[in-house]
C-alpha cells in the first residue's frame, strides 16, 4: 500500500503522507470496518463488488464481462463499447 500510495502521490503531485497515516491509524481501521459492515448488510460476497444501476456486475476478465456490463448500461454507448 505504501509504495503504491507514494507512487500515485508523486504522479498527482500530492503529499501521500497524510493518506498513509490515515490508512494505518484508527480512522483508517474504522473506515475499513464500516465498509465491511455495509457490504455484509447488502449481501456483498466478494471484493471488489460492483453495482451498475443497482445490478451486480460480473467481473470475469476472461470474457470481458465487466466491459460488457458497463457498455450495456448506456443508452448511447461511447465508442470504446463498439469495438
Provide structural commentary:
The structure is a single chain. The two termini are 34 Å apart. With 83 residues, the protein is mainly alpha-helical. The chain has helices at residues 2-12, 17-24, 26-41, 65-72, and strands spanning 50-52, 55-57. The model has no long low-confidence stretch (mean pLDDT 85). The radius of gyration is 17 Å and the shape is flat. It has a two-stranded antiparallel ribbon with strand order 1-2. The longest helix has 16 residues, at 26-41. It folds into two domains: 1-43, no CATH class; 46-83, no CATH class. The chain is 52% helix and 7% strand. It is built from four helices and two strands.
Biggest sheet, in brief?
Answer: 2 strands, antiparallel
| Mean pLDDT across residues | 85
The overall strand count is 2
How many angstroms does the end-to-end distance come to? Answer: 34 Å
Shape: flat
Query: Which percent band covers the strand fraction?
Result: 5-15%
The number of domains is 2
Q: Indicate the low-confidence ranges by residue numbers.
A: none
Please, what is the oligomeric state?
single chain
Q: Order of strands across the biggest sheet?
A: 1-2
Percentage of residues assigned to helices: 40-55%
**Order of secondary-structure elements:** HHHEEH
What class do helices, strands and sheet pairing give?
mainly alpha
Gyration radius, rounded: 17 Å
Contiguous helical run count:
4
